[in-house]
Amino acid sequence: MDAADPLGATIRDRFVLDAPSDRASGDAGVYLDGNSLGALPRAVPGRIADVISREWGEMRIRSWDESGWWTAPERIGDKIAPLIGASPGRVVVGDSTSVNVFKAVVGGIRMAGKGCTEILVDATTFPTDGYIARSAARMTGLAVRPVEPTRIADEVTERTALALVNHVDYRTGELNDLPGITTALHSAGALAVWDLCHSAGALPVEVERYGVDLAVGCTYKYLNGGPGSPAYLYVRESLQDRFDSPLPGWNSHAEPFGMAPDYAPADGIVRGRVGTPDILSLLALETALDVWDGVSLEDVRTKSLALTDFFLDCVAAYVPPGRVRSITPYDHGRRGSQVSLECSGAAEVMTELIRRGVVGDFRKPDVLRFGFTPLYTSFADAERAAWVLGEVLRALPEQDPRTAGAGG
Amino acid sequence: MDAADPLGATIRDRFVLDAPSDRASGDAGVYLDGNSLGALPRAVPGRIADVISREWGEMRIRSWDESGWWTAPERIGDKIAPLIGASPGRVVVGDSTSVNVFKAVVGGIRMAGKGCTEILVDATTFPTDGYIARSAARMTGLAVRPVEPTRIADEVTERTALALVNHVDYRTGELNDLPGITTALHSAGALAVWDLCHSAGALPVEVERYGVDLAVGCTYKYLNGGPGSPAYLYVRESLQDRFDSPLPGWNSHAEPFGMAPDYAPADGIVRGRVGTPDILSLLALETALDVWDGVSLEDVRTKSLALTDFFLDCVAAYVPPGRVRSITPYDHGRRGSQVSLECSGAAEVMTELIRRGVVGDFRKPDVLRFGFTPLYTSFADAERAAWVLGEVLRALPEQDPRTAGAGG
């Protein structure tokens, strides 16, 4: 399967994967946590060395113009755009995902009709989205109603300003129905705000095709931008003129160096900028995005589904019956690019897996989470992970489910 | 004067200053724009190479714990704290200055008495502070009143929630009276929110001694953290329990990995965090802060005043009479660490200065701005800059002041 993989050795070789995960053993291990922190693209260290030593160290302040620092947020946004199905001029990079959720939700509320009294928030969302959405609603006088994604079409009303929904559930790996939910929201006159953290770079995302209004996403998972690399904001073209940011910093001003006391927003997606952009992290991300050159997102999706299918088959074959249960949908249409296994004593199991070179992560109370990043995860990696999981579970006694929660 | 400088060769040698500003000439030039972007500390390239290749490339996700990534915002805050007169646990690093102004102003408004109807904003402030303060006021239902810093004591009323003031005016280099203004605000029951962007690292700042309530600052000027390096937030200890952030991201949660649907703020300054911290930039800043080891802020202030005095003397000696006028106060008590000269045709003059290796910056409509960063600017630099300025002004015809604005 690896030999037949169109994303095989050539693409995988764009990443640093041969470094020992454990210097004592020299074993590179299996990395199945690219959905938390993507692996290092090979070109990044050299690029950042040059940014620091030459662009900062020698050119200093001149680099804001001459090295293209000032325009990096839009330029890198345009590089992300094709990965989420957006045209140039729709995406801007900067700030954390949480800060971008705040911009998107407040911005969306301000675009909504005056009669709107509430926003819907994906009840299964990554918590920060919910915390920030509540703050946005509190500061604009709206209520927040948590709703399961599958219930949004039934729950949206004419009083709903928008819904904030995750494209892929971070915990279960379930892929939500972006086209259907977006259409249902629009039918009720509400805006669709999508969090793409767990889908962009793992599968084709088509924000323009399906009329998504606003979207945010991080860049350190499947986009491999590095730890805490800046997030992005998408604003649909037809809404950009009405985007009224709650964080109107000088970088979003029509004339940032005019230093005018009154605020006048820039045209276009620049309006989503806030303060001085974080250049080291932005330029690491820019170089990291080069790994997508020549990669078809259809191939990515095909491989992602094949990898997760194969991993589930290997788990069924190698893991003692009854010790784990997949909470990731088997239906391809509802699956992201991770497999989450419920497992009694999951915290201890993951610690032992990592000790044996298989890196996934643990989510409370009892979930083993394995991310499959199609650009660099191999079928051999998937098989080894399932094999080692079987070994670990055979070595660890089965916990009494009534007390297993204490292990989480 | 350079030979007698206690911050002379040893400290200066902690920075990369010998690289040619112009590769053709090989001349390192004179860098007087450290108040926009600090020079590169020598230790940064090696540290970041290790962060990228080993901590990210090899250890990957394990580095959040094992390399201390997760706690970097507070740890680096504690490293900035002594530079602004704060104890440990009062400063957290992350996000841009603009985002931190939003946190500080909304947080301050929420701490203020219920009868408050307005905030005061330094009328001479760096514009982004004003834009963000207006957004914070709009979202909390308060009015904004711009006030000259020297008028704050007279203008504050019992309806004033807080005043947002710059410690040093970015344009003129004037040092505002932090102790006096803070006391006046407190007498009226208002909070003092200070922007330290142009003072921290250039002179002693004493936030705790004078009872400052909230403060923000950037780290890429006198703190040399690199282009767009993250900003910081200071919250007075006695107010931390009441700090109610408008950006309650998961990093500020009492149990961030609990993934609880309900928000519960962490104790202490961690409450000022928002989303996933930007590790490359944070760790570059952490290493950059090592240049302060063994440096006395009293020596920094003494040298800053001596450098700016000397530069003004050299300008008087070398520049044709009447061509420039200092708008920076001569009074040491009112001077920051820059000299701003009004000059007809300033934009063209600065372009020519930079071409001749003297890097300052231009601020509309007619200001030449020269920053003196005491850790690495020498008296020889100051003299050369004034000498070249004289040459440039003799070479450029004096513009008719009635049309000079067009050059800006």
TrEMBL record, chains A, B:
Cofactors (names): pyridoxal 5'-phosphate
Family matches, as Pfam families: KYNU_C
Modified residues (N6-(pyridoxal phosphate)lysine): K221
Example GO biological process: L-tryptophan catabolic process to kynurenine
Listed EC numbers: 3.7.1.3
Reaction(s) this enzyme catalyzes, per UniProt: 3-hydroxy-L-kynurenine + H2O = 3-hydroxyanthranilate + L-alanine + H(+); L-kynurenine + H2O = anthranilate + L-alanine + H(+)
HAMAP family (alphabetical): Kynureninase
Free-text function comment from the UniProt entry: Catalyzes the cleavage of L-kynurenine (L-Kyn) and L-3-hydroxykynurenine (L-3OHKyn) into anthranilic acid (AA) and 3-hydroxyanthranilic acid (3-OHAA), respectively.
PANTHER family for the chain: KYNURENINASE
Name of the featured protein: Kynureninase
